[in-house]
Amino acid sequence: MENKFERCKNYILGHRALVEKGFEILQPLLKDYLSDAEMELLKSNIKVHDESKFSSDEFFARVNYYHGEKSEENLKKLKSAEEKHKTTNPHHPEYWAAKNEEMPRVYIVEMVLDMWTFGLRDNNPREIFDFYEKNKDEMPLLGSSRKELERVLKMVDVAIDEETHQKSKNKVHKPCENV
Ligand SMILES: [Zn+2]
Predict the structure, then answer these.
(1) What distance in angstroms lies between residue 154's CA and the mean position of ligand 1's atoms?
(2) Which of 177, 158, 174 is nearest to 166 (CA)?
């Protein structure tokens, strides 16, 4: 039996695996968007995506709320851990807003991959567009960061289309046989 600590750890690792999955799908389209050096940086960042969730303050705040009592006190601690997570991790726009800087492309891509994980998990890859519509006004994006984010979202759209097309092609076996 998994205990609550293992469950929390596995959730974080499962989330990271979904970020990696999204990257695999999007990678061919990113080749014209990121330089080689940025692509290498993105790959190494993805390998440790959300590593700070294993730090004791973030980890126990998550365990106590998600796998423990949903009390007011635990929620307060979770919210403050989340706030800290966002301002100390460069794949969140809050990190750059606090520095009053535009978000570099490599982190915009990681943010989009992060947003995509829920849809990928639930077999509903287009959920990311609803998520963006619902949350876009709360994202503190400076300068051209929003335009860049929407460019990457467009790539996700193309990647989903290509995947769907590929899958339906694979389903058709020997199309001429039945004609
Ligand atoms: Zn994060």
Answers:
(1) 21
(2) 158
Which residues are close to ligand 1, an ion, with C-beta < 5 A? 50, 89
Q: Which pTM value belongs to this model?
A: 0.90
- How distant, in Å, are the alpha carbons of 23, 119, 152, 154, 175 from that of 166? 17, 19, 21, 18, 15
| CA 122 to centroid of ligand 1, rounded, Å | 19
User: How far is the centre of ligand 1, averaged over its atoms, from the C-alpha of 50 (Å)?
Assistant: 5
Residue corresponding to tokens 């006190």: 73
pLDDT in tens, the chain (179 residues): 689 999 999 999 999 999 999 999 999 999 999 999 999 999 999 999 999 999 999 999 999 999 999 999 999 999 999 999 999 999 999 999 999 999 999 999 999 999 999 999 999 999 999 999 999 999 999 999 999 999 999 999 999 999 888 888 777 665 555 54
- Lookup: tokens for 107: 């982190």
